[in-house]
Amino acid sequence: MKIARATLRPFAARLEREVAAGRRAAWRRVGALLVLEDERGTRGVGELSPLRGFSPDRFRDAWRAARKLAGRLAGAELPDADLGSLLAAAVPEPAALPTSCAAAVETALADLLARRAGVPLHALLAPGRSRPPRA
User: Fold this and answer.
1) Measured at the alpha carbon of residue 111, what is the angle toward residues 106 and 114, in degrees to the nearest 5?
2) How many CB atoms lie within 10 A of CB 59?
3) C-alpha angle 84/88/93, rounded to 5°?
4) In CATH, what number is assigned to the domain containing residue 33?
5) Looking at the domain assignment, is residue 132 inside a domain?
6) At what angle do helices 99-117 and 83-90 cross, to 10 degrees?
7) CB neighbours of 33 closer than 8 A, spacing ≥ 6?
8) Which of 40, 71, 90, 133 is packed most tightly, with the most Cβ within 10 A?
9) What is the DSSP string of 93-134?
10) 4: closest CA among 65, 73, 83?
């Protein structure tokens, strides 16, 4: 599979309720969507939005890492394989990334793989289940 484009789309949203985050309270969520598009035009989306007080990384650091990663992924040839192999090829050292950046690329690749296969994401992650598990 070839990643034709990798883009980041920033967003900011007002939260309906205040989220207590240590000594601070948050009324806004700032983040970005990582959109990976293959050579067929199929897209997978992952969210990059660390929440201050809950996430160990800051948005600024995650954004920088995601921009670098998007630059490396654009035009990359990745194996048509299972999710684990695809992730290993796309991100050889995920521990070196901010956690929200690693989560965004993992989700975007999983979403892309599921869409290419024509199955819902939960079917890719939990084969054999007819419905996603309930929390």
Assistant:
1) 125
2) 21
3) 130
4) 3.30.390.10
5) no
6) 130
7) 8, 9, 11, 45, 46, 47, 48
8) 90
9) -GGGS-HHHHHHHHHHHHHHHHHHHTS-HHHHHSTT-SSPPP
10) 73
End-to-end CA distance of the chain: 33
pLDDT tens figures, 28-63: 788 999 999 999 999 999 999 987 777 888 999 999
Amino acid 135: pLDDT? 63
**Number of domains the chain contains:** 1
Q: pLDDT (tens digit, 9 = 90+) per residue, 76-116?
A: 998 887 888 888 888 888 888 999 999 999 999 999 999 99
> C-alpha 30: how far from its chain's center?
15
- Whole-number Å distance between alpha carbons of 77 and 68: 17
Cα gap 8→28, rounded to integer Å: 19
> Residue 129: inside a domain, yes or no?
no
Q: What's the predicted TM-score (pTM) here?
A: 0.85
- How large is the angle between the packed helices 59-73 and 99-117, nearest 10 degrees? 40
